[in-house]
Design brief:
mainly alpha; 79% helix; MetI-like fold
Length: 317
């Protein structure tokens, strides 16, 4: 187990280094001059050069990269080029919307996928199961923006049950108001990701029903349903854990995208504004933090899978 942890940690660090390089170089391909944006259209060439020198943008790219990377790994994300505010403080503030939205969406996805996936596998020939399976395929193919617009029209405009846009100015001072503002975006993302997860759960449950240890349990007196619950679902849980990292990554990316539609002051809206202003340091630091969270979650789920599944530990020995 210790050897696995060391290898997984080294893989995580290598992934972070590669991600940082890709993010840094990709942003340098964007059109536009940061110094010109800051100086405005009335700035002279000398003023623009002075701004570029003050921000260190005139230095060679390798030096800019290693300075930024050194700050990242020492916990110093730096300050915004445009506003001069602390990048770490802004990310922490915006994460108070994005992180709860992602977790809320995950709860919705699990509530949808787990019971429906098990039910449709157990009663796979029943008409309700076939209808749910078709609806799952359709829901997984729906674009998030289109689903969000449909949700706004149905649940907000017509029924008036949920707010269509915005987030309370005082944030989480009123938890119920904050949750209400996140409910429609969470439903939008969670139902789509839940439909994707539903197919994995159904497939894993079908495999569990046909597994030898489940059939053996039935031969010893368990009912089909009892054998599935007692001996089949633990294996289904392991399958869900193995893909949960991808699901969380999808939920996080979906949350970043959907914030624009619902006017939520999270990391997604901040990224869009910062890209428009060519605030490169802030954009690359935010993207790196999001990438690091996704990679770290993947590593954590790998470790959890290794802990709860004894077969993997036996293979390692």
């Amino acid at each position: 187990m210790s050897r696995f942890l060391v290898v997984r940690l080294l893989t995580l660090l290598a992934g972070l280094l590669l991600a940082s390089l890709i993010i840094f170089l990709s942003l340098r391909l964007l059109p536009g001059d940061v110094a010109q944006v800051i100086g405005g259209t009335s700035a002279s060439a000398a003023q623009v050069d002075a701004i570029r020198e003050r921000l260190g943008l005139d230095r060679p790219l390798p030096l800019q990269y290693f300075d930024w990377l050194g700050g990242i790994f020492t916990g110093q994300l730096g300050n915004s080029i445009v506003s001069g505010t602390s990048i770490a403080a802004e990310i922490a503030q915006k994460a108070q919307v994005t992180v709860p939205l992602t977790l809320y969406s995950l709860v919705v996805a699990l509530v949808v996928a787990l019971p429906l996936g098990v039910f449709t596998a157990y009663r796979r020939n029943a008409l309700p199961s076939r209808i749910i399976s078709v609806l799952g395929v359709v829901a997984a193919a729906v674009p998030a923006v289109w689903a969000g617009l449909l949700g706004i029209m149905l649940l907000s405009t017509w029924l008036g049950l949920l707010p269509a846009q915005g987030f309370p100015r005082d944030g989480w001072a009123d938890p119920m108001a904050a949750l209400r503002s996140l409910t429609l975006p969470a439903l939008t993302i969670g139902l789509i990701e839940g439909a994707i997860l539903f197919r994995f759960v159904k497939s894993a449950t079908l495999n569990a029903i046909g597994a030898e240890h489940v059939r053996t349990a039935m031969s010893r007196g368990y009912t089909r349903f009892g054998a599935l619950i007692r001996h089949g679902l633990p294996g289904v849980g392991l399958s869900v854990i193995s893909i949960l990292g991808l699901q969380v990554a999808g939920l996080l990316v979906g949350a970043v995208v959907i914030e624009q539609l619902f006017s939520l002051p999270g990391l997604g809206r901040m990224l869009v504004v910062d890209v428009g202003q060519r605030d490169l340091i802030k954009v690359q630091s935010t993207l790196f933090v999001l990438t690091a969270v996704i990679l770290a979650l993947g590593a954590l789920i790998d470790v959890m899978h290794r802990v709860v599944d004894p077969r993997l530990r036996v293979e390692e020995q």
